[in-house]
Q: What sequence folds into this?
């Protein structure tokens, strides 16, 4: 999850409560422009404690999971080779031409 996704999730949760930006800001002691920037993913820096306070007010929690790694070029080449082999080993199904009525 990146900062834009986090901000969007915060905004959706806030709107679903519903709670105004002003009330949330008052509860966590941040300015409305700061919250707005957080919700839009444009806040350059934000402390983790502030994020945790915002999430707590919205009934959310931050959890960690192992990051997905991007495949290497070699991984992608192997996938491509495997796909080609699979394509070549698949049985070919030929479609028959439609039957035409025989002339009497």
A:
């Amino acid at each position: 999850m990146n900062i834009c996704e986090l901000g969007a999730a915060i905004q959706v949760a806030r709107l679903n409560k519903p709670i105004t930006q002003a009330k949330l800001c008052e509860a966590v002691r941040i300015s409305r422009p700061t919250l707005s920037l957080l919700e839009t993913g444009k806040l350059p820096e934000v402390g983790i404690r502030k994020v945790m306070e915002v999430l707590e007010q919205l009934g959310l929690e931050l959890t960690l999971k192992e990051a997905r790694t991007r495949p290497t070029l070699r991984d992608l080449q192997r996938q491509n080779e495997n796909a080609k082999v699979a394509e070549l080993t698949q049985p070919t199904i030929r479609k028959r031409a439609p039957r035409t009525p025989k002339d009497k």
Q: What stands out?
A: The first helix runs from residue 3 to 16. The domain at 1-89 is CATH 1.10.260.40 (434 Repressor (Amino-terminal Domain)). DSSP finds five helices and no strands in the chain.
